[in-house]
Fold this protein.
Amino acid sequence: MSFDDYLDQNIFSPLGMEHASFRQPLPEKLKPEVAQGYEKATNKPKGYEYINLAPAGSLAATGADMARFMIAHSQNGAYGEQRILSEETAKMMHGTPLTIIPGTEEHVTITYGPLDETDDHGLLTVFSNDPYRPEVHAEQTGGITGTVEAEDLFEQPAKPMTDIVFIVDNSGSMTEEQANLANNFEYFIYKLQTSNADYKIGVITTDQNGFRGEVITPDTLNAVEKFTDQAVAGTGGSGTERALQMLYNCVQPGGSCSEDEDFMRDDALFAGIIVSDEPDQSALTPEGYVEYFWTLKDDPDLIKIHAIAGAIPVPTCGTCASAGFGYDEAVELTEGTFLDVCADDWGASLSALAESSIQDLSLFKLSQDPVEDTIKVYVDNAQRYNGWWYTGHEEDLGNNAVKFQDEYVPEGGAEVRIEYVVRQTCDG
């Protein structure tokens, strides 16, 4: 889960902070509310300021929303009937965390990572009720030794490339779900087409790992009809649904989904979309399959598992046989999308899945951890001073990448070069 998604789910939504976001660029619904900034009263207003050190400094919020956050803290983590922190955790944050009994000791761990090329100096002060030494100071010094520089090179694809495999449950209870999938596929392919995606779509089942028909591409005539013939796979299949295992078999050398069969492409996003009303009953654990799928790509982020399956932990309709246990784990590991098989609007669900399956051409992952203010971005050898930001270190819930604003995304065929100093870790 990304930093922004975590805040939306665990802070902003529970507190009703509907006008707050760390996201860059701002969500469309918040753009009309942004205050205009002026360097001088006689100048034209400046555009929205992008923060390269985001999320530090990138919060945009109304005063009323910040008041909700402050009230929650003043009430030890609670706001109305919602809670963002346990009372115990909130009191620990607001109080003195350590009580040291005479004759004993407590260890305090300080973590550090340099943000620039200059040395840093810190002072830890411990306040206590010790009558002889009420304050104790400990100095720290850190910095970069042996600077290491890195350079990452990328060639921008002409179009977002995506290789998609639908794994359709063909057991006895899937008549309605297969029909919903087929009847709403037009929403899925429309999203791909309007995104100018270079796509391949194949269909297998939860008990057969070979494609059921022609691979669908932008050049396929009558694509919706051909997909319908494949997606309505019948209900005479095995009652032991093994979607992850069938996808695993499909990508093996010589399998329908493999590079050998001219389906999987090295630089394309690979998405498996599972449609089932039962849990996964494959031979291995979801983690085992996902770890194998990751080996198929140089960048693990090019693997996505999505699912339309029974809600966790209990299905929300009588036509769904069971919650989609196992699929939810694979979806979470690959940061995919999990949707309820009982949803009324399958058109919206399939449109969302298509959007989640399109390669993001605005994002360039770095091979190493950078010192943020040393990052330099070049497109076709011309340095870009704006229109991009660093998404954050992985330990800070970022994904260690350079992200371009929509209007600054490099064109297809462009060479993108990113230079930076590698962030060093402390010894001891």
The mean pLDDT is 90. The chain is about 20% helix and 20% strand.
